[in-house]
Amino acid sequence: SSKKSDSRGALIVLEGLDRCGKTSQCSKLISYLEGSGHAVESWRFPDRNTGVGQMISSYLMNESHLDDHAIHLLFSANRWEKRSLMESKLRSGTTLIIDRYAFSGVAFSSAKGLDVEWCKAPEAGLLAPDLVLYLDISPEKAAERGGYGDERYEKLEFQQRVAQSYRTLYDATWKIVDATRSMEDVEEQLKQIVMECVLKCQEGKPFTQLWQ
Ligand code: TMP
């Protein structure tokens, strides 16, 4: 039927502060979806494996210095270089669970003082997620979780500004999940929301694009 040919995978993004538990929850979602017979892949941004990704990685590890605007554009370019693969995966029926996306790009760069609209501009035209899951935790609580690493942004004061920036990006379509609850509780909640989205995309849901 015509319905079937529109069937596609879902683009699902997890966002949140550093140490909010996103990465663990992404892998739990992958096992869950695989276990229920869905084609699914785990992606993350920055994707440090590309040439652009290596520049980002060395910046984050304080091995290089870049102007705030320049690094912002590299993070965005890193998403653009994956855009066509992303679309073809989704069209072929694979669901993508993505650890960070354009919202991280805007939240982190605008936390440095860059203009929000300027930050959004290079992201316009990327595929819009079918679902954004925000793992909500205060910067203070996140910091208590085994502490931050040594990377550039892993400092309490900066994370507080990032939390503020995320708040200006929320819209009604985001699912805000209390990330201070137990891993199991968070996992259960995410599973339900995610499955609903996967099924909706399977029935055929048009693609939309970010910020246009
Ligand atoms: P990661 O810890 O998830 O690998 O992300 C590395 C850092 O990069 C994290 O502090 C968030 C930040 N970041 C940006 O500043 N802009 C972006 O576009 C993305 C995807 C991440």
From TrEMBL:
<keyword id="KW-0418">Kinase</keyword>
<dbReference type="GO" id="GO:0005524">
    <property type="term" value="F:ATP binding"/>
</dbReference>
<keyword id="KW-0547">Nucleotide-binding</keyword>
<dbReference type="GO" id="GO:0006227">
    <property type="term" value="P:dUDP biosynthetic process"/>
</dbReference>
<comment type="similarity">
    <text>Belongs to the thymidylate kinase family.</text>
</comment>
<dbReference type="GO" id="GO:0004798">
    <property type="term" value="F:dTMP kinase activity"/>
</dbReference>
<dbReference type="GO" id="GO:0005634">
    <property type="term" value="C:nucleus"/>
</dbReference>
<keyword id="KW-0067">ATP-binding</keyword>
<dbReference type="GO" id="GO:0006233">
    <property type="term" value="P:dTDP biosynthetic process"/>
</dbReference>
<keyword id="KW-0808">Transferase</keyword>
<dbReference type="Pfam" id="PF02223">
    <property type="entry name" value="Thymidylate_kin"/>
</dbReference>
<dbReference type="GO" id="GO:0005737">
    <property type="term" value="C:cytoplasm"/>
</dbReference>
<dbReference type="InterPro" id="IPR027417">
    <property type="entry name" value="P-loop_NTPase"/>
</dbReference>
<comment type="pathway">
    <text>Pyrimidine metabolism; dTTP biosynthesis.</text>
</comment>
<protein>
    <recommendedName>
        <fullName>Thymidylate kinase</fullName>
        <ecNumber>2.7.4.9</ecNumber>
    </recommendedName>
</protein>
<dbReference type="GO" id="GO:0005739">
    <property type="term" value="C:mitochondrion"/>
</dbReference>
<dbReference type="InterPro" id="IPR018095">
    <property type="entry name" value="Thymidylate_kin_CS"/>
</dbReference>
<dbReference type="GO" id="GO:0004550">
    <property type="term" value="F:nucleoside diphosphate kinase activity"/>
</dbReference>
<dbReference type="GO" id="GO:0006235">
    <property type="term" value="P:dTTP biosynthetic process"/>
</dbReference>
<keyword id="KW-0545">Nucleotide biosynthesis</keyword>
<feature type="domain" description="Thymidylate kinase-like">
    <location>
        <begin position="14"/>
        <end position="189"/>
    </location>
</feature>
<dbReference type="InterPro" id="IPR039430">
    <property type="entry name" value="Thymidylate_kin-like_dom"/>
</dbReference>
<dbReference type="InterPro" id="IPR018094">
    <property type="entry name" value="Thymidylate_kinase"/>
</dbReference>
